[in-house]
């Protein structure tokens, strides 16, 4: 099991996610805490407080030769009501119009892709995926790059529930 030792790498992933969400960044994400294999961050800007949890895979497999640092993030975004969003960043650009398969135990989720990110299709899909992540022990993410290489990343969900609760507490 991997303990996150790269807060700067994850902070960069968070910045990239914020940029794709259209949130204007005034600051770099601030590290709040680690919960086993998950890390909690917060960013405050004119749009409000945005909190995240993030993790890197404990295992990476595939037929690729080179890729960046993959990560999964769950963000609590400001709004009325606030929304929660799961995103996957594989460390490469996804094949156009491809889907990403996420599995938590026997449950499967289909995410849509755009560039170097994948997201659940609806708020209810995000909620169902988060519930599964809270209950599960591992999660696999399968995707295909623009070069038709594939990856299968395995994420530990150890600490996910406590990190998720800490994220929600930080953004009350």
Give the helix/strand layout.
Elements (H helix, E strand, L loop, with lengths): L6 H15 L8 E6 L2 E8 L2 E8 L3 E4 L8 E7 L5 E7 L9 E6 L2 E8 L2 E3 L3 H13 L2 E7 L5 E7 L3 H11 L2
Antiparallel strand pairs: 1-2, 2-3, 3-5, 4-11, 5-6, 6-9, 7-8, 7-10, 8-9, 10-11
Descriptive overview:
Helices cover 23% and strands 41% of the residues. It is globular. The protein contains three helices and eleven strands. The longest helix is centred in the first third of the chain and has 15 residues, at 7-21. The chain has one domain: Invasion associated locus B (IalB) protein (Immunoglobulin-like, Sandwich).
Features of this protein?
172 residues, alpha+beta, Immunoglobulin-like, 11-stranded antiparallel sheet, 3 helices, 11 strands
Please identify which CATH superfamily we are dealing with.
Invasion associated locus B (IalB) protein
Give the low-confidence spans.
1-15, 19-25
SSE string: HEEEEEEEEEHEEH
Backbone structural class: alpha+beta
Rg over CA atoms: 15 Å
Number of helices: 3
Proportion of residues in extended strands? 35-45%
Reading side by side through the largest sheet, how are the strands ordered?
1-2-3-5-6-9-8-7-10-11-4
Overall average residue pLDDT: 87
Largest sheet: number of strands, sense, barrel closure: 11 strands, antiparallel
- Overall CATH architecture: Sandwich
Short description:
The chain has helices spanning 7-21, 123-135, 160-170; strands at 30-35, 38-45, 48-55, 59-62, 71-77, 83-89, 99-104, 107-114, 117-119, 138-144, 150-156.
